[in-house]
Design goal:
The protein has about 500 residues and is of the alpha/beta class. The chain is built from twelve helices and 18 strands. Helices cover about 40% and strands about 20% of the residues. It starts with 5 loop residues before the first strand and ends in a 13-residue tail after the last strand.
Amino acid sequence: MRDPFLFVSHVSEDRAEAMEIVAALERRNIRCWIAPRDVQPGRPFDDEISAAIDGCCAMLLVFSDRCNESEYIRREVTVAGESQKLVIPFRIENAQPKHGLRVRLADLHWIDGFIAREQAVEALAQALGLNTATIRQPSGVEPASMTAKQSLECSGASSASHSPSEVNQFKTISRQISTVDTEQASAVGNKGSSAPARLREDGEGARAAARAFGQGSIRASKRRLIIGTALASIAVAGLAAALTVIRQATPLPPSTEELRAQLAAATSQFSCASLDYAIDPDRTTMRLSGFVANPGDVDRLRSTVGRIGGIGKVVLDVDVRIWPYCEAMSVLQPVVQRTTAPAPTLDLVPPGPVAHIADALVIDIRSPSFDGYLYADYFADAEGHVIHLFPNSQGSSNFQPQRSRLTLGNSQGGRCWTLAGNPGEQQLVTLIVASKPLFPNARPELDDVRDYLPRLSDALNRLSEESSRAAASLFFRLVDPAPAAARRNECR
């Protein structure tokens, strides 16, 4: 991030609440860096965090009692202190720092976010010296660069908006205006004091003035007519010039190619995202589809695209896929786009958008229209654990004929996986089929997404153009455990 940003430190157990806080801050145009969302694919995790702390303007510690047991939190707070970064503890529960954190955080001001979250976020924005209102820009107007009160200041940059010479110049101009006003007032006063003397003119002067009045009135009328005509001509000319300037200043709507270029630039600035757009021929409607990593990115996308002129209506069909699901889908997306009909399919057993915690994960798979090697992966949580459902230790032969069916998780004597997690959490199962093997050797059944996804991406890129490949994905959410009598799938 080149703009000033806030480093958000948290433990993995608090990630959902941390992401909610990040979304609320980013709606206020406060840029945030949070792991693992902003860790670049293929980069060492610790190096990315260290660089982010060095580059940030302040650290927000999302604090709960779980932070007291986290060695990572203690390290991040220590590094921030060594880098002389402002650390702001934001409590999401009524907990106190213990052990080493008690020493590190003893003298810091706390913000309590476990009672009234929105008010706490407002207090945080004030602590950062920002305007507490959500920043909105009029449609079609580029946002002004942040002022000193609307940005996190790095490197002690001066917040003054004018140099001393400019200030002195403004003072000089102000004095000149005051002098002119005083002189004009004096002139008016002097003219007023001479009026009684003029009223004491002798009778002959008065009579001469009366004789000249008629001729003077005619000459004055002619002068007024000439002056009025001239002023009218000037007004018409000025109006015509103004209309010309307005016509010249009103920009033409961008061409379709320019519009596509602007949309491509706007959608490419989101990390861990995949976005597509389609513009109606008459340009009355533009549709955005795909996914981003958090709700704050949806708001930022809407604002960014809304500032592009030449579009009548913007329709957003954008999902939120948190890390690591967004990164997994980014790897899969090129293969999905190349998949031809009939495509492979993935379905829960029983079918539906949800699965019960403590049930067995049972997946029904239908192969694509070619013989190939099948790889089914279950991205189990937001920690980055991935379970290789197939091939596995009890089913190592993963070559499947075209349009064949395979059910994982309920075969007699086969592998079985029990669903675990919290209600509402996203879950992802992916399927890749290729006419050539992707890996020379079997991967361990429990893998780390940080190691696996770069290797998977490399394996897909090594496939020749002639090699067939296809992919599918299945998203579902966890719900509360079903009553024991109602469970359909159990690992026994």
